[in-house]
From TrEMBL:
Pfam families: Acetyltransf_1 (PF00583). The chain crosses the membrane at residues 65-92. The lineage of its organism: Eukaryota, Metazoa, Chordata, Craniata, Vertebrata. Keywords: Membrane, Transferase, Transmembrane, Transmembrane helix. CDD domains: NAT_SF. Residues 95-236 form the N-acetyltransferase domain. This is N-acetyltransferase domain-containing protein. InterPro entries: Acyl_CoA_acyltransferase, GNAT_dom, NAT_camello-type.
Length: 247
């Protein structure tokens, strides 16, 4: 008997692994509905805020940051007491954590006030745009476990798709859902005749970068976004990675 991954509005795809089989029985990828709004916004916010601590950890484990922290500890001790040896590096680490929080919490705040405030208007109002959710039945209740969106872009004569809002709930990570969500978006872009699919992710999101590379995306550019002050970006050590896949 052939098993298939159920995708409403798309062709069925045969599973390629045991993890796909575990999800195929109850998970559906479908278009966003207005009733999904609160759950989608919560999933989006929580998933982005998860990056704060990994960002902080990555920043603080850089050799020159470790050296500076130890120097502050020694300086505090020589200037006064054990309290000073704890206070100075503590203030420094607090500043680095603030920078990491500023980037990701600020991003969430900005998106909730812009495109995520009106998902149908920003992601479903044109035929070449779409917003999907992955819905699974858990304990007899339908729950949204992931999202992904495509927005059509035009550059001269070239029409391509931008992939946005790739979010996977922690309960469904590393079981193939991210690949299926991305493939759903890629298939949509192929059907629309797009020349390529482009996306942006951050250097902290190493599992996402690995997934995109596995699916054929290439890293084309690294840079920073101007939304945060330069000193915040320097302390957080975050860069934006632009990736593309030709179709």
């Amino acid at each position: 008997m052939e098993l298939s991954w159920t995708v409403r509005g798309q062709d069925k795809v045969s599973p390629s692994s045991l993890t796909d089989f575990l999800l195929v029985m109850q998970l559906v990828i479908r278009r966003y509905r207005p009733s999904d709004r609160d759950t989608v916004l919560t999933l989006f916010s929580n998933a982005i805020l998860e990056h704060i601590y990994p960002c902080f950890q990555t920043s603080m484990t850089r050799p020159h940051f470790l050296a500076f922290t130890l120097a502050l500890c020694a300086a505090g001790y020589h200037l006064g007491s054990v309290f000073g040896a704890v206070l100075l590096p503590g203030l420094w680490m607090g500043l680095v954590y603030y920078s990491c929080n500023k980037i990701y919490a600020g991003y969430v705040s900005m998106r909730l006030k812009t495109d995520m405030q009106d998902i149908p208007g920003n992601f479903l109002s044109r035929p070449d745009d779409c917003f999907w959710v992955a819905e699974a039945e858990i304990d007899g209740r339908d729950q949204i476990m992931g999202t992904v969106a495509v927005v059509a872009k035009q550059s001269g004569k070239e029409k391509y798709g931008e992939l946005h809002r790739m979010i996977i709930s922690p309960e469904c990570r590393r079981v193939g859902l991210g690949s299926r969500m991305t493939q759903t978006a890629l298939d949509f872009c192929k059907e629309r005749g797009f020349s390529k699919v482009a996306l942006e992710t951050s250097s902290i999101q190493t599992p996402a970068v690995a997934l995109y590379k596995k699916l054929g995306f290439c890293h084309v550019l690294s840079g920073i976004k101007p939304e945060a002050p330069s000193w915040v970006l320097m302390l957080a050590n975050v860069s934006v990675l632009q990736m593309e896949k030709q179709l």
